[in-house]
Amino acid sequence: MKRVISIGVLLLAAMSAGRAMAADMPVKAPAIPVPQWGWTEFYFGVNIGYAKGQTSWCTDAEFINCGTATPTDIYNATSDGLVEGGQFGYRWQVPNTFVVVGFEAMLDGLTISSMKNGVPSPTTLTRYTSFNNLESATGQLGLAMGRLLAYGKGGFAMTELNLDAQNTATGVDLSVPGWKWVEGWTAG
Fold first, then answer.
1. What does residue 18 show for φ and ψ, rounded to 5 degrees?
2. How far apart are CA 128 and CA 146, in angstroms?
3. Phi, psi angle pair for 89, to nearest 5°
4. What's the 3-state SS for the chain?
């Protein structure tokens, strides 16, 4: 019986020692999940660039001629200059795909203008065109390739367009300011 008890004690000691050794062994830390890159986000930013505007308009400031077959008081102008502002938007990446859709609104400040004297004639006639501010709202559609997003966007834009026809000799001044929808395109 002593022998059975001795073997039992030895087995118990061996099992206890084994557990103690296992508890002292280093434990492997769980794997840290790898973050998945995605394009679903709100965003905002600033921009600076170059703007160019072209106008062609007729005025009846001197005499009624714009409704005729051959109007004579037509003014063509090109204005250009610096534009700066900001934009904000939201993009959403369709789950488990590479497709990204979004919306962006932009507000820019600009003042570009053109003025000519003697149009059409005499030199007392002055024609003035100016573009002030620029707003746009665009939709976006893109393809996400990891941390690279290739997208296109398009929408509508609006600017404040001021047209002014003056005759400094007679004092006639026809000014037509106001917000006008303008056609255009945007790509990114």
1. -65, -40
2. 50
3. -170, -175
4. CHHHHHHHHHHHHHHHHHHHHHHHCCCCCCCCCCCCCCCCEEEEEEEEEEEEEEEEEECCCCCCCCCCCCCCCEEEEEEEEEEEEEEEEEEEECCCCCEEEEEEEEEEEEEEEEEEECCCCCCCEEEEEEEEEEEEEEEEEEEEECCEEEEEEEEEEEEEEEEEEEECCCCEEEEECCEEEECCCCCC
How crowded is residue 97: how many other Cβ atoms within 10 Å of its Cβ? Answer: 9
For residues 153 and 185, what is the distance between their CA atoms, to the nearest angstrom?
Answer: 9
Instruction: List, for the chain, all residue ranges whose pLDDT scores fall below the cut of 70.
Output: 1-25, 61-63, 119-122, 177-188
Alpha-carbon span 148 to 141, nearest angstrom? 14
Token pair listed for 118? 């003697």
- Cis omega (within 30 of 0) for bond into 33: no
